[in-house]
């Protein structure tokens, strides 16, 4: 949690810096963290730690603590199907100096989830960063890459089953970010869908 100065009464307003994301199972997080470590050793930069590997669905930023309940409520109205995410290629954004993992075939259910979530958040009057841009799913593995000409790795595709998404609070420091899950939202599985018929 953080605090920022309010504009109405000059006091301090408690806020949380939050975002919604897909969070990988431990084995997938470990694999991606290992890839990040190896690439950072070759290209320099700051590798993503195993405990912070994620795929951002919607970044909100600072939200007043009194509005967190509204944020959670908006996300509870999102209904989307569970799906498998296959990360099968890597890329490097030279201008941002970011090494990332992505999928050559984006699951339609992932696009629908991100769209439904953004719609629900905007309807609840929350600002979503980059809401006007096309959603490009990726997992950031290394930031501040020092040698952008480094050859990208070649690994077997990684399958990541996605059965829920999460709301995460982010605390920033001079060294690194620390994340804490504050809510979890299940996705609809085939079994659940059949049970609702």
Main pleated sheet: 5 strands, antiparallel
Name the CATH superfamily assignment. Cyclic phosphodiesterase
CATH architecture title: Alpha-Beta Complex
Inertia-based shape: globular
Provide the β-strand percentage band: 35-45%
Overall SS class:
alpha+beta
Q: How are the elements arranged and paired?
A:
Blueprint: E1 2-5, E2 12-22, H1 26-43, E3 46-47, E4 55-64, H2 68-76, E5 83-87, E6 89-93, E7 98-102, H3 108-123, E8 139-143, E9 158-162, E10 164-172, E11 177-186, H4 190-195
Antiparallel strand pairs: 1-2, 2-4, 2-10, 3-8, 5-9, 6-7, 7-8, 10-11
Protein described:
With 197 residues, this protein is of the alpha+beta class. The chain has a single domain (17-188), classed as Alpha-Beta Complex (Cyclic Phosphodiesterase, Chain: A). The protein is built from 4 helices and 11 strands; from the N terminus they run ββαββαβββαββββα. A hairpin with a 4-residue loop joins strand 6 (89-93) and strand 7. The radius of gyration is 18 Å and the shape is globular. The relative contact order is 0.23.
Provide a compact summary of the structure.
With 197 residues, the chain is of the alpha+beta class.
